[in-house]
Structure formats: C-alpha cells, structure tokens
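Section 5.1 Outputs to date
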Amino acid sequence: MAYLNATVLNDYQAREAVNEKRFAAHGVIDLVYNSSPFCDFITPSTREKMATISGAQAIKLPAIQDQTVTVVTTPGFTFIPDNLTTSVEYTFVAYDIFSGFRQYDASYANNNVDRDFDRDTKIKNVLNAMADTKEGILTTVLDAQRAQTLDYTAQVNQSSGGGTYTFTGGDILTVNKAAQQETMFSSLSALMIANKLDGSYATVTSPAGLAVQKMEALKYGANNEKDVQALGMIPASDMHTSHNISTSAVFDGYWVQKGAIGMFSNFPYDFRNGTEVDSAKWSVTDVEMPMVKSRLNVYTDRFKANATNIVSSADTNVIMSAGEEMAMWDRFYVVYPYNSDLSVYPSGIVKIQGLTS
C-alpha cells in the first residue's frame, strides 16, 4: 500500500500567535488598592464627588491640626481653658494615564495572526504598560509621604533575637539579615504601635524580597509546628511584590498601614454618560480592569484610512481600509491622611530595606 510523502502535506498554520511580552507583578497597585477601603478620612460623599468632579476643580479636605491642650487641677468657671483648634485644608490632585491602539481590518486578510487574538493581546500589553506607569506615580507618592522620623528602634531590637532595625538617614528603616525571619512582621508591628500607629499593615518589596518570610509561613504554618499567627506573620495576601521596585540588597520596599494611602477613580462627563456620536462611543468599563485595578474610561471609534504607510506599503488591502481605534484613560486621585510635618509626626508609610548581612 502506498502512502503520501509527508513533505507534500500542508503544514498547519496556527492563527493564535505567541505573545513574547512578560507581564510584571504590580504589587504597589495591589497594596494601594487593598488599602483604599481603610481611608476613613475620605467620606462616602467625598468619594462620590471624586468620581464625577471636573478636572478644573480641586478636592479640598479640612483637617484639624495637632494642638497643645491645657489641663488644670483647679476647677471653676474662671479656669476653663479655651483649647481652641486650628483647622487647615489640604488638597489632592488627579493623575492621568492614557494609552490605546489602532488596528486595520484588511491587514489581517494576508496575516497569519487572528484579528481578535491580536486585539486581545494588544489590550493586555497596553494594560501592563499602563500599570507600570501607575506604579511609578504611586511609588512617588509613597516616597513623598514616607516616615522621616521613627522612634523606639532600640526597644524593638531587644526582642528581635539579634536582629537590628535602624532608621537611617531619616527616611529608610533597614533590617539586618538576622532580623529577616518569621518574627520580622511582629517587630515591625510593635515598632509602629510604639509610634502610635497601630492597625493592619501590608508590605510590598522588590521581586523575591519576602522569600524567607513566605517560606517560614508555608513551612511551619501548614503543620502548626509554629504558631505563625502568634508570631505576627501577616497573611500572604498582604505580602506584595513589584517588578517596578529595584534593589541592590535583599529587598527594598514599603511597610504600609492600611488607610495610609488610597486611590479613587474619576470618570469624565461623556464617559460616565455613555455619549455616542456616529460611530464614536464613550464608556466606562463595567468591571475593574486587570493590572491597573481600576474601571477605565474607554473611547472607541471606526474610521477609514490609507494605512499603507503604517501597516505595509506592499499590502494593497489597506490602501482604502476601515480601521478601529480604542483609547483607555485611567484617571484617579491618590489620597493620604493629613500630616503637617513628617519630620515631627511619624507616618504610616515606612520605606524598608533588607540588608545582606
């Protein structure tokens, strides 16, 4: 019986291409996103206003400054102190991240890549790049609001089993290698409580920065050989990693009180009202988009174009072609509690660094 020679068979050409893009971990966004519900200094009515306010308007929050209270030991009408408060206003600004893409339907007639697969891939790639930009903005705010004073490191060092916490240069808390064990989070929490900043905390570090701590939690927590909860181990969901934080040490990152920073989205008029003009459409995504962790303002339109100078001068399909464009706009406010002087009042945002020795 004769068989066909395999060389004459048609090769199978896959239409769903391989995407070379490597997607980053965006732990800074994750941390700020999870911290946002704890920002109780932003009232529900203010949150609603943030969602719809025009970019020409400012968000102003009142704050009462710390005061020196007079207390006496003699009762009487004449001894009632004034103890007047001083109020101030502080403002937040909106940040904008904008990107998108265009594609030409006819260019896929002579292309082995499927149109819808290519579109979905571009959306993911754009979202990844937008998230990188967003992390840069959030990191800038974290750095601007980080603690510049932190007391009681000497006391915490006494209970850290030879570990040392040092607040260097007035703005970085270094953790030596001996302190980077399962008790690290407990010591960090004790330090914040001593500075009158108790509460729930989360952390974000450079890639693999918390490998030791995560291993301790997994290794001992599963068999209950150590009570990791009693040791102050924070949940794995509060240990974040970001490829946008670099380090030359074991890790660099931030130890952040939940509610010390937050982000809230803004939706300009036409987007939230779903304006349509011919084929142009303005909308807001129904759900929060991956990576950026926000509902996005989206603009789409159909158009006609000669795309030979963009796609390929040899492809006659695109001389008179139809195209689609999509714009994605992430507009958001970054919020944080009032602090009149970071060099006097400790902040719930602490920049941390794990040393190699």
